[in-house]
Design brief:
One of its GO terms (molecular function) is anti-sigma factor antagonist activity. The protein is α/β, with parallel strands linked by helices. The protein has one domain: Transcription Regulator spoIIAA (2-Layer Sandwich). Helices cover about 40% and strands about 20% of the residues. It has five helices and six strands, in the order ββαβαβαββαα. A six-stranded mixed sheet has the order 5-4-3-2-1-6, covered by helices on one side. α1 runs parallel beside α2. The chain is globular. The model has no long low-confidence stretch (mean pLDDT about 90).
Length: about 170
Protein backbone atom coordinates (compact mmCIF):
# COMPACT_ATOMS: atom_id res chain seq x y z
CA UNK A 1 0.00 0.00 0.00
CA UNK A 2 1.16 3.49 -0.75
CA UNK A 3 1.24 6.14 1.96
CA UNK A 4 -1.94 8.13 2.14
CA UNK A 5 -2.44 11.59 0.79
CA UNK A 6 -5.35 13.92 0.27
CA UNK A 7 -6.07 16.04 -2.76
CA UNK A 8 -8.53 18.92 -2.59
CA UNK A 9 -10.40 21.19 -4.97
CA UNK A 10 -13.04 23.86 -4.52
CA UNK A 11 -15.29 25.56 -7.03
CA UNK A 12 -18.11 27.91 -6.03
CA UNK A 13 -18.71 26.23 -2.68
CA UNK A 14 -18.39 22.65 -3.94
CA UNK A 15 -15.48 20.90 -2.23
CA UNK A 16 -13.87 17.72 -3.49
CA UNK A 17 -11.62 15.67 -1.20
CA UNK A 18 -9.81 12.78 -2.87
CA UNK A 19 -8.29 10.26 -0.45
CA UNK A 20 -5.49 8.23 -2.00
CA UNK A 21 -3.49 5.27 -0.74
CA UNK A 22 -3.59 4.13 2.86
CA UNK A 23 -5.55 6.77 4.80
CA UNK A 24 -4.68 6.41 8.47
CA UNK A 25 -4.29 8.19 11.77
CA UNK A 26 -1.21 9.98 10.45
CA UNK A 27 -3.48 12.10 8.25
CA UNK A 28 -5.97 13.05 10.98
CA UNK A 29 -4.48 16.52 11.55
CA UNK A 30 -4.50 17.18 7.81
CA UNK A 31 -8.12 16.04 7.44
CA UNK A 32 -9.20 18.04 10.50
CA UNK A 33 -7.53 21.21 9.17
CA UNK A 34 -9.24 20.74 5.79
CA UNK A 35 -12.62 20.33 7.47
CA UNK A 36 -12.10 23.50 9.50
CA UNK A 37 -11.20 25.35 6.31
CA UNK A 38 -14.26 24.03 4.49
CA UNK A 39 -16.71 24.88 7.25
CA UNK A 40 -15.26 28.32 7.96
CA UNK A 41 -15.59 29.54 4.37
CA UNK A 42 -19.30 30.27 4.75
CA UNK A 43 -20.27 29.47 1.15
CA UNK A 44 -20.48 25.67 1.39
CA UNK A 45 -22.83 24.11 -1.16
CA UNK A 46 -21.66 20.51 -1.38
CA UNK A 47 -18.92 18.08 -0.34
CA UNK A 48 -17.74 15.19 -2.51
CA UNK A 49 -15.37 12.60 -1.05
CA UNK A 50 -13.63 10.49 -3.68
CA UNK A 51 -12.41 7.15 -2.31
CA UNK A 52 -11.80 5.50 -5.71
CA UNK A 53 -8.04 5.41 -5.11
CA UNK A 54 -8.21 4.67 -1.39
CA UNK A 55 -6.44 1.39 -0.59
CA UNK A 56 -7.19 1.34 3.14
CA UNK A 57 -8.91 3.58 5.67
CA UNK A 58 -8.87 3.35 9.46
CA UNK A 59 -11.56 4.20 11.99
CA UNK A 60 -10.06 7.60 12.80
CA UNK A 61 -10.31 8.70 9.16
CA UNK A 62 -13.82 7.22 8.99
CA UNK A 63 -14.78 9.24 12.05
CA UNK A 64 -13.51 12.40 10.41
CA UNK A 65 -15.55 11.56 7.29
CA UNK A 66 -18.60 11.05 9.51
CA UNK A 67 -17.89 14.49 10.97
CA UNK A 68 -18.49 15.91 7.48
CA UNK A 69 -22.01 14.45 7.38
CA UNK A 70 -22.80 15.61 10.91
CA UNK A 71 -21.39 19.10 10.28
CA UNK A 72 -23.19 19.63 6.96
CA UNK A 73 -26.60 18.56 8.25
CA UNK A 74 -28.76 21.66 8.11
CA UNK A 75 -26.05 23.68 6.34
CA UNK A 76 -26.52 22.31 2.84
CA UNK A 77 -29.62 21.01 1.07
CA UNK A 78 -28.22 17.61 0.09
CA UNK A 79 -26.21 14.92 1.79
CA UNK A 80 -22.47 14.91 1.14
CA UNK A 81 -21.40 12.42 -1.55
CA UNK A 82 -18.95 9.55 -1.20
CA UNK A 83 -17.62 7.93 -4.37
CA UNK A 84 -16.44 4.40 -3.61
CA UNK A 85 -15.72 1.90 -6.36
CA UNK A 86 -13.86 -0.65 -4.25
CA UNK A 87 -16.01 -3.35 -2.68
CA UNK A 88 -13.85 -3.62 0.44
CA UNK A 89 -14.04 0.12 1.16
CA UNK A 90 -17.77 0.23 0.38
CA UNK A 91 -18.37 -2.70 2.74
CA UNK A 92 -16.61 -0.81 5.56
CA UNK A 93 -18.66 2.33 4.88
CA UNK A 94 -21.92 0.40 4.96
CA UNK A 95 -20.93 -1.48 8.12
CA UNK A 96 -20.47 1.92 9.81
CA UNK A 97 -23.87 3.18 8.62
CA UNK A 98 -22.54 5.77 6.18
CA UNK A 99 -25.31 5.05 3.65
CA UNK A 100 -27.74 6.85 6.00
CA UNK A 101 -25.65 10.03 6.09
CA UNK A 102 -24.05 10.19 2.64
CA UNK A 103 -25.15 9.81 -0.94
CA UNK A 104 -23.16 6.71 -1.94
CA UNK A 105 -21.97 6.53 -5.56
CA UNK A 106 -20.36 3.28 -6.76
CA UNK A 107 -19.22 4.40 -10.21
CA UNK A 108 -16.35 6.80 -10.90
CA UNK A 109 -17.38 10.36 -11.66
CA UNK A 110 -15.44 12.66 -13.96
CA UNK A 111 -14.40 15.63 -11.86
CA UNK A 112 -13.39 18.52 -14.07
CA UNK A 113 -11.55 20.23 -11.29
CA UNK A 114 -7.78 20.47 -10.80
CA UNK A 115 -6.84 18.91 -7.47
CA UNK A 116 -3.97 20.07 -5.28
CA UNK A 117 -2.26 17.96 -2.65
CA UNK A 118 -2.95 19.00 0.93
CA UNK A 119 0.21 19.38 3.01
CA UNK A 120 0.69 16.70 5.67
CA UNK A 121 0.36 18.34 9.06
CA UNK A 122 2.05 17.08 12.19
CA UNK A 123 0.89 17.77 15.73
CA UNK A 124 1.81 16.81 19.25
CA UNK A 125 0.72 13.43 20.58
CA UNK A 126 -1.89 14.92 22.93
CA UNK A 127 -3.56 16.87 20.13
CA UNK A 128 -3.67 13.77 17.92
CA UNK A 129 -5.04 11.69 20.80
CA UNK A 130 -7.89 14.19 21.24
CA UNK A 131 -8.65 14.15 17.50
CA UNK A 132 -8.77 10.33 17.58
CA UNK A 133 -11.17 10.44 20.56
CA UNK A 134 -13.38 13.02 18.84
CA UNK A 135 -13.43 11.06 15.56
CA UNK A 136 -14.47 7.87 17.34
CA UNK A 137 -17.17 9.73 19.30
CA UNK A 138 -18.66 10.90 15.99
CA UNK A 139 -18.61 7.31 14.70
CA UNK A 140 -20.29 6.14 17.92
CA UNK A 141 -23.09 8.64 17.31
CA UNK A 142 -24.00 7.16 13.93
CA UNK A 143 -25.64 3.99 15.24
CA UNK A 144 -25.82 1.59 18.22
CA UNK A 145 -23.43 -0.93 16.60
CA UNK A 146 -20.70 1.70 16.30
CA UNK A 147 -21.32 2.83 19.87
CA UNK A 148 -20.80 -0.70 21.12
CA UNK A 149 -17.78 -1.24 18.86
CA UNK A 150 -15.88 1.96 19.68
CA UNK A 151 -16.82 2.69 23.31
CA UNK A 152 -13.88 0.58 24.59
CA UNK A 153 -11.49 2.44 22.26
CA UNK A 154 -12.68 5.84 23.49
CA UNK A 155 -12.56 4.68 27.11
CA UNK A 156 -9.00 3.41 26.70
CA UNK A 157 -7.84 6.61 25.00
CA UNK A 158 -9.51 8.80 27.60
CA UNK A 159 -7.92 6.74 30.37
CA UNK A 160 -4.43 7.36 28.98
CA UNK A 161 -2.78 10.24 30.74
CA UNK A 162 -0.46 12.30 28.58
CA UNK A 163 3.20 12.10 29.50
CA UNK A 164 3.99 15.16 31.55
CA UNK A 165 7.57 15.83 32.41
CA UNK A 166 8.63 18.38 34.96
CA UNK A 167 11.76 20.42 34.55
Amino acid sequence: MQNGKILIAENQGVYVLKFMGDVRLTLCSTIDALLKRIFCQGCLKSVVIDLTETEGIDSTALGLLAKIAVSTKGQISQKPTIISTREDITRILISMGFEHYFLMVHEPIELNQPLTEAPILDECVESIRQKVIDAHRVLMGLNPHNKEEFAPVVFALESCQPNITSH
